[in-house]
């Protein structure tokens, strides 16, 4: 599979949004592969991680986030499950789950129902090692044009996750320890 060919089916390669998405996704892939190599003893699938990291945000064009050039009809939080739907149609069900489960540090069905989030009522939390690694790596990079290539510190990430509850910070902290991030 060629992740960039899949992305080009949905994004104009000459657009600013394509440049933002691909830059962000490449940085996430590099970080995810570095993490995976540190935990090689766990047997992560490096080829899959590289592909999934490039594709994890493919659904953003269907959302409203004009600051980066997204003019779709859905709230940004929906980009994960929308990406899942796209990749399932493309015949990549395993990659599709990474899309759905990478938002935040994962979103539970209970959170979706309690907070009345505009998402399908199901657990959207990373389950496999590869899903966790891509989700973890994604937290270090923004799609904000002014911050696109800057890697966030773990403390910055924890601070941004804190508004969603201590369990989110705890999940990220556990990944920091598990994945040997300093």
UniProtKB/TrEMBL annotation:
Residues annotated as domain HD: 22-140
Gene3D superfamilies xref list: Hypothetical protein af1432
InterPro entries per the UniProt record, alphabetical: Diverse_Catalytic_Enzymes (IPR051094), HD/PDEase_dom (IPR003607), HD_domain (IPR006674), HDIG_dom (IPR006675)
PANTHER family from the UniProt entry: BIS(5'-NUCLEOSYL)-TETRAPHOSPHATASE, SYMMETRICAL, SLR1885 PROTEIN
The name this protein goes by in its record: HD domain-containing protein
Highest classification ranks of the organism: Bacteria, Bacillati, Bacillota, Clostridia, Thermoanaerobacterales
């Amino acid at each position: 599979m060629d992740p960039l060919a899949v992305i080009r089916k949905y994004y104009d390669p000459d657009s600013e949004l394509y440049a933002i998405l691909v830059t962000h996704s490449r940085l996430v892939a590099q970080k995810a592969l570095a993490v995976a190599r540190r935990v090689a003893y766990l047997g992560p699938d490096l080829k899959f991680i590289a592909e999934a990291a490039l594709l994890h945000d493919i659904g953003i064009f269907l959302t409203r986030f004009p600051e980066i050039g997204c003019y779709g009809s859905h709230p940004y939080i929906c980009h994960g499950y929308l990406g899942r739907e796209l990749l399932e149609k493309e015949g990549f069900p395993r990659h599709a789950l990474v899309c759905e489960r990478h938002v935040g540090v994962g979103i539970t069905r209970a959170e979706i129902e309690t907070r009345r989030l505009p998402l399908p009522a199901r657990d959207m939390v990373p389950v496999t090692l590869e899903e966790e690694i891509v989700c973890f790596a994604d937290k270090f990079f923004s799609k904000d044009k002014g911050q696109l290539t800057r890697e966030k510190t773990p403390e910055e990430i924890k601070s941004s996750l804190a508004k969603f509850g201590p369990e989110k910070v705890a999940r990220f902290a556990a990944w920091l320890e598990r994945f040997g991030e300093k």
